[in-house]
Amino acid sequence: MKEEIVSAENVTLAFDKEKNYALSGVSFSIQRGGSIAFIGESGSGKTSMLRILLGLIEPTSGRVRLFDKYLDEVDDEELREIRRACSYIPQDPFGGLPPTLTALQAVTEPLVITRLNVKKTGRERAKKLLSSLGIGETLWNRKLIQGFSGGQRQRIMLARALVTDPKLLFADEPTSMQDASTRMDLVNLIRGHHRRGMSLIFVTHDLLLAKAIAERGIVLYRGHMCETGHTAPLLKDPLHPYTMALSAALPRLGKPIEIKTKRRPLPPHWKGCPYFSLCPYASDRCHALPPLKKIGDDRSVACFLYF
């Protein structure tokens, strides 16, 4: 059995004392070499989960274990050592890169930070990564402050993340500013590293992209786990009404987009199903919070339709 590289145990993050949650009771694990996608719209808690996994913010409750160490038990030096085995692609391509460095310097900088400063081979690896992502030699020595598009910056951030050959990659919407052709360049590069043993945690709102890049998925809505399982069945046969809506929103040739939702007001301090206000199947049972129920060997869904 493969070693478990990441686990989250009932992770909750509250915004305030009124218990407005960014995350509520999220649990999952990934074995070495595995991949998982967090899927959901803006505000669903995807980025908050990544930041907790990296130890950038502390959860209100619950625990995270990374490389067999609980993050709430390690000191600063141990945390830095753990992070050296990881890479992180932040969501913001404009705030995620050092503006005074050139594109090539930005990609080689992590080799210094992680103590892998092999000057010649490191620079060659950085150049190869940039070239494979469409950042040609004429742009290598241009400073980032001198004008790169959002899409170019995303590609530079991916090269910067992969130059150290990380054991674990955290990628937060790394293709959001790409067109169809360059998006596949990024996806194929990430998949290539994943096939060579890199573990992956990927954030997206797109079920098709989740299927293309990750083996398993967790659908989040307002910080709650709606559905989990392999990404192909999540796309082909969604169980939760919110996952159904995400799937229905995908464009299909010759078929109109038909999303089944209803709009109803939520009472103050709502404690029931987070999707109640939009769900076309809601009933009085949904005034309670549905637990995750296992469906088959590898599917779980939090919906009273299956109780």
TrEMBL record:
It holds the Pfam family ABC_tran. PROSITE patterns: ABC_TRANSPORTER_1, ABC_TRANSPORTER_2. Gene3D superfamilies: P-loop containing nucleotide triphosphate hydrolases. Keywords: ATP-binding, Nucleotide-binding, Transport. GO terms for biological process: peptide transport; transmembrane transport. InterPro entries: AAA+_ATPase, ABC_transp_ATP-bind, ABC_transporter-like_ATP-bd, ABC_transporter-like_CS, Oligopep_ABC_C, P-loop_NTPase. The keyword Transferase does not apply. CDD domains: ABC_NikE_OppD_transporters. The keyword Iron-sulfur does not apply. One of its GO terms (molecular function) is ATP binding. Residues 6-247 form the ABC transporter domain. Belongs to the ABC transporter superfamily. NCBIfam families: oligo_HPY (TIGR01727). This is ABC transporter, ATP-binding protein. It comes from Acetomicrobium hydrogeniformans ATCC BAA-1850.
